[in-house]
Structures are given as structure tokens and as C-alpha cells.
Amino acid sequence: MTLREIFVDAEQRAQLSSQKHGELQYAVAATRGWSRSDLLVRLNLPGDAGMQVLVERVAHQLADGYPAEYLTGQAAFCDIVLRMREGVLVPRPETERLVQMAEDFIVREDLSSAVALDVCSGSGAIALALAARLPQVSVMGMELDPVSVSCSRESALDMGLSERVRFVQGNVLAAWGLTVAEFRSHADVIVSNPPYVCGQRLAAAHASSPVEPVRALYGGTSGMVFYKRIIAQACDWLRPGGLLLLEIDDGLEQGILGQFKRYGLQGGRWSPDLRGLPRYAEAHRAT
Ligand SMILES: C[S@@+](CC[C@H](N)C(=O)[O-])C[C@H]1O[C@@H](n2cnc3c(N)ncnc32)[C@H](O)[C@@H]1O
Question: How is the chain split into domains, by residue range?
């Protein structure tokens, strides 16, 4: 059988949706240490039995909802590549906008050195992408899950950013002073994509990616648990005029604007994602 026939056969047996055929090629190529084009030029060559077993196994994993990023050990985000492994949330494209918003603020303020906190940092995607873009920025990521913390530290090392980007294991819902005390009233930006799926939407969110950790998604019955805590803490950790940036779920925007007001943050507003749904919220600490 040619490699092309092996792929077609495995896709049919696993009933892999056509949207995932590209991911199958990408994951198989990465497992073999090839680029996708290395694989494409081999498609008309005969494939060996080992290749047949590999393609079939990967096709079934993808069909079962296993993210291609877990198979390749890598995820692309903004202009960086992150380490990835099971238990770590795969960063989503819509989160890239948060990096852009943080970057715009730091550039606009013309800060020669800036400090950012990435709360619920997961793979370290936001922290590392921001630091990679702006050499004047130092970032501290706070994350509960030890696997995510070590994965993000490894990515920081890979990228030569471990001097400026640190990750600590900490519970955002507990006292922040234990983990990020040194940043009190000093952060120029606090950015967070916390767990925000509400109880009603959790089953659907989990079904769309059944292998990813529920801990990374569930934001309590109303979806607001993490926002309430982060917004309540923001005034203590931001410097006057500092910016709080949040990724949010649609339907939560009014509740979040209400929390901004309650804790005295100013200029609160939300903005939409590419589908037009409320996805980002921001506010400033008063100057
Ligand atoms: C939606 S994910 C976002 C990860 C990453 N910032 C990103 O944008 O890809 C939320 C993250 O919050 C972490 N998390 C859950 N509960 C937490 C807690 N109590 N304290 C700190 N982090 C927590 C999860 O492990 C997960 O990595």
C-alpha cells in the first residue's frame, strides 16, 4: 500500500471527520520527526507495516477527541511554539487577542520596563507570547496545576525567556500574597483567561474536547467564580492606571462590568471576538 492509501484506509476505519485529515498528517509527520511537507512528498511511496499501525492509532486518537497538540507535544500560539502535554489546556486562537491588547497598552504607555501578571497561566501561552514580543516586559504566571506549571517553565527555557518569565504554582482563589507578594501595587497589566464555562454549558464544552482537563474550563455554576476573585484582587495588585484584561464567555459581560464598578475599576468595557460575541473585558485601576 502507498502511504496515501494507508491514510485513506485509517481515516475510514476511524471514521475521522474530513476536518481532521490535515491534523492526522501533521501528527503522524511530527511523530516520525518529519515536517508535513516531508510527509506529503512520500505519499505515493510504499508505507511499511509500522507506518500502517501508527497512522491507524493516531486516526483513532483524533477521532476520540484527543488533541493533535498532545500527540505532537507542541502548540502554535501567536508567533511562538509551546510545549504541550496531556493535562495542559491547548491555547485557543481567540486568546491571541488578549496578547495584542496587553501589547498595545504597554506600547501606548511607552513603558521602558513593564510587569505583567498572567493569572491562570496554563501552558504559559499569554505570558510567553507577550514577553517574546516585548523585550521590556517581565511576566509572572500563576497556575494551580503542577503539570501546566512545569510545561510552561520548559517552554520558557526553550525560548530563552526564563529570566523574564516565571511561573509559580498558586491558587488564584486563595490569597495571592502567598505567591505573588512582590507584585503588590506594581503590575502594569493583569491578564487572565480563567476557567469560565458555567454549569449549564459544561457538558457541551467537555464533549467538544473530552480529553482536556475540566478544571481548565469550569468557572462555577454561574461561570463567575474566577472573575469575582480576580477583579476583587486587581486593585491591590495593579499600579495606579494599570490595566486588567480578561477573556470572558458571552453572557457574562454585564456581570463582569458590574464587578468592575463594585471594586472601583474604571473605564470598564467589553469587546467582541471575530464571531461578534462578547469575548474580552478590560478596566483600569484609577490613577
Ligand atoms: C482556560 S485555561 C487558560 C490557560 C491559558 N491561560 C490559556 O489561555 O491557554 C484556565 C487555567 O486555569 C487553571 N486553574 C484552574 N483553577 C485554578 C486555580 N484555582 N488557581 C490557578 N489556576 C487555576 C487551569 O489549570 C487552566 O490552566
Answer: 3-64, 85-284
Site to probe by mutation for ligand 1, drawn from 120, 178, 273 as the one with most ligand atoms within 8 Å of Cβ, is: 120
Q: Read off the DSSP letter of residue 256.
A: H
Residue with cell 518569565: 165
Cell of 80: 511562538
**Which of 89, 179, 192, 201 is the pocket-test mutation for ligand 1 (most atoms within 8 Å of CB)?**
89
Q: Which CATH superfamily is domain 85-284 in?
A: Vaccinia Virus protein VP39 (3.40.50.150)
Q: What is the pTM of this model?
A: 0.94
With a cut of 50, list the residues of the chain below it in pLDDT: none
114/104 Cα distance (integer angstroms): 12
Residue 65: other Cβ atoms inside 10 A: 14
